[in-house]
Amino acid sequence: MKTSICLAMAAIGMISTVHGQTVDPTRGRDPGKIVPRADQQRATAPPTKGQQVAVLNIRLEADNGKIMAARVDSSRTIASYAPKVFARRGGPWEVIIDGKTRRSFFVDNPAMREAEAHPSSGDKYQWVGVTGPIDWPLIVPLYADGQSLGARSITIRDTRSGAIILQAEI
């Protein structure tokens, strides 16, 4: 009797594994920290006064992926290392930093979400338009190549239509 129960439990376990129904026993637990050896740890120098970013909290109103309204809810400038956004060479929106030096970078439209395409379409993914309010945090570097851009304003422009989505003073 005990043997048949054990065999039945093993069979159920194998079926669950085959059908992807197993539960990860570590799920929901803190994964812990990976700490490099003491001789490999290096302190990072704090950002210099010229290494600043603008943190913009932007509120967008969208209708099926089309932006109907945009406003800056809050903004602040902080000393921080910038994300490497200047390496991206294209995208649906261009963020233009205007100042003593003009720079720009590209971002995706936050009102369009990437989704898995239907298998019959033959596409790997598709874009789905969002409707409603969208809170969009945007980090804008105010320096490049270690030098301040002297930024005064930020403009977000749709690259396809040329329409201005948002202009904000810094």
Please report the total strand number as a whole number.
Answer: 11
Content of β-strand: 35-45%
Largest sheet data: 4 strands, antiparallel
- Please tell me the overall pLDDT: 85
User: Structural class, judged by helices and strands?
Assistant: mainly beta
What spatial order of strands do you see in the largest sheet? 4-3-10-11
Number of helical regions: 1
* CA distance, first residue to last residue: 76 Å
Helix amount: 10-25%
**CA gyration radius, whole angstroms:** 24 Å
So what's the overall shape?
Answer: globular
What is the H/E order? HEEEEEEEEEEE
Uncertain residue ranges:
10-22
How does the SSE layout of this entry go?
Layout: H1 2-18, E1 52-63, E2 66-79, E3 93-99, E4 103-107, E5 112-116, E6 125-129, E7 132-141, E8 143-144, E9 147-148, E10 151-158, E11 164-169
Antiparallel strand pairs: 1-2, 1-7, 3-4, 3-10, 5-6, 8-9, 10-11
Overview of the structural elements:
With 170 residues, the chain is mainly beta. It is 10% helix and 45% strand. The radius of gyration is 24 Å and the shape is globular. It starts with a helix and ends with a strand.
